[in-house]
Fold:
Amino acid sequence: MSLHNYRKPEGSPYVLCRQTRMSALPKLMKIKDYDFHLPKELIAQYPLEQRDKSRLMVVHKDSGEIEHKIFYQILDYLKPGDGLVINKTKVFPARLYGKNEKNNSEIEILLLREKEKDIWDVLVRPGREVSVGTKIIFNEDKLRGEVLDKIPSGGRSVKFFYDGDFFEIINQIGVIPLPPYIDRRPEPEDKITYQTVFAEKIGAVAGPTAGFHFTQTLLDEISNKGVQIIPILLHVGLGTFRPIKVDDPKKHRMEPEYYEIGEDAASKINKIKKENKKIVAVGTSTVRALETCANEEGLLEEKSGWTDMFIYPLYDYKIVDAIITNFHLPKSTLLLLVSAFAGRELILKAYSFAIEKQYRFYSYGDAMLLI
Structure:
C-alpha cells in the first residue's frame, strides 16, 4: 500500500511508519455496505455529568452475544495481568478567530500540525480570501500569522509570531474544536469534558473519545485489580471525522498522525502478550498506534513517527485483544476498523440494537466493549 506521498515535516527526526500486513478486500466489498441511518436525536450534544455512568454495550465477537451494561462495569471484564492501553494525548483549543490585516475581514483557522518551529499546517475559512502572503491578527495582536503556502489538503501553511509561550497564548484565545456533528458552539466546560482525565501531552485536535468514560476512581479500581494501565501516544487529527467518499475503501487516504510508543510501554505489553493475557485498547487511536508498531512475531516495537495506517476487513490484528470504543459515523474509517475486529455483520447488528435501545452516539455518547 502506498504512503500517499505524504511528506514528513521538515526538520522532523521521525519517519512515517506504515504496516502492510492486510489481506486484500473482498472483490464485492463497497463502502455502501457500511452505511446505516442514525436518528439525529441520538447524536449526543453534551457529555453525561458522571463520565463512568454512560451505557456500555459489550459485544462478544466469537459467540455474537451482546450485553447491555453501565460503563463502570467494565471492571468485570478486565482480569489481573491484563493490560489497559490508554492514549495520553491532550486536546488543545486549536480553533482560532482572527482578522485579515488588509481588510479586517474575519478569518477562522484550525491548527492541524506543527511542521517545524512556529510553522503550522492549518485549515482556513473562508479559503478564497486567504492567499499566500495574507497576514492575520489574533486577539488584538497577541498573536500574528502570515500565510506561507498552500498545502495539498486545501489548507495553508502559516508562520506564527508572538511573545511568550505559544500554547499558553492558544489556551487563552483558542476554542476547543468540537466535531461537526455537535451542533452548538463550544462552551467553557468543553475544555474539561472534551478531554480524558489522563490527558498529558498536547497535540490532538480531536479527542480520543473512548477515554472520556474513565474517571480517576475507576482507573484506580482497575489498577487495584491487578490490571496494568499503560499510556502511549497518538495525536488524533481531523481525519478521524472524515467519511470515506469513494466506493472502493482501498482508495481512501488516511491523514497521517504522530505517535509515540516508548520502551517501557513496549516492554510491558510484550510481557503481557507472552503471558497470554489480554491487551485492551482504549479507543481506535490506541489501536492504530499499537498495530502500526507490531512486528510479524506479534510483539510490539518501541517507535515514534507518523502513521497513516488504515485498518479494514480482513486485517489480521497482532497486538489488540479487546477494544473499548464509542459508536462511530456511517461509512467511516473507524467503523471499518471495528468491523475488521468483530466482523461487519455483528457490528451492524450491534449498531441496530444501539439505535433501537436509544444509545447515545459519537464523541459525547455511550461506549462499546469488543471482546
Summary: Residues 1-26 have pLDDT under 50 and may be disordered. Residues 15-91+191-370 form a domain with the QueA-like fold (CATH 3.40.1780.10). The helical segments are 166-173, 190-193, 216-224, 263-274, 284-292, 333-342, 344-356.
